[in-house]
Amino acid sequence: MALVTFDLFSTLIDSRSGGSAAFGALAAGHGWDVDGVDLYDDWDARNKASQADTAEWVPFAEHCRRALTAAYAARGLAADPTADVLALLDSLPDWPLWPDVARALPLVADRHTVGVLSNVDDVLFRRTRAAALVADDAVLTSERLSAYKPHPEIYRRAAGAGVEVHVPASARDTRGALEAGLVVVRVARPGHRVDPAGPRPEHEVEDLAELPAVLDRVIAGG
């Protein structure tokens, strides 16, 4: 059985929907006329930049706090980013899975080991709806690997841990995995695209239910 990893916050979880709802609730609680989607997008971009700029591992929650501190400062919003990040991360159990995930992952698990490759911390991963679908020993987090996407090192360490195929959705994860030499089957998700400046994946699916058949071809041909 091959070890097949999935990205958490783009492939398995609709993080933009879940995070935007949480930010909308925070904004309403503070009495701000700020759109939750807009605030999420600002915070998310800063959070990813914080991860990309970090040479050594720090907790995911700290990246979140740094990003929210910067987002609030840029917008002139007065609130405690530490408290608001705690509220944001407490909302993780409410962030929805993409509609195909609960149906498709057991199909993949019938033939392969289902894992996760994510920049999240272990304790935060266990709060998500994806945790029940993945064995603990197949969870490869930045905390465990001491590296962050999209740096090549996290993908090399994932390969060293036995990953044969990675299933991303986002541009940075797809490009990072391909440039590091991992076999990639990308799932197309709303709001995500392939980086036009990077390599294009040879294999792509519209729905994870298509994945078992694609994996049979990819792994047999590998």
Keywords for this entry:
single chain; alpha/beta; 6-stranded parallel sheet
Explain this structure:
Helices cover 50% and strands 12% of the residues. The protein is globular and about 55 Å long. A six-stranded parallel β-sheet has the order 3-2-1-4-5-6, sandwiched between helices. It is of the alpha/beta class and 222 residues long. β4 (163-167), α10 (171-179) and β5 (183-187) form a beta-alpha-beta unit.
Helical proportion, percent range: 40-55%
Largest sheet: 6 strands, parallel
Poorly predicted sequence stretches spanning 5 or more consecutive residues: none
Q: How many individual β-strands?
A: 6
Distance between the termini: 13 Å
Strand order of the largest sheet: 3-2-1-4-5-6
User: How much beta, percentage-wise?
Assistant: 5-15%
Shape: globular
Oligomer: single chain
SSE pattern: EHHHHHHEHEHHEHEEH
C-alpha Rg, in Å?
Answer: 17 Å
Average per-residue pLDDT, rounded, comes to 95
Structural class: alpha/beta
Number of helices: 11
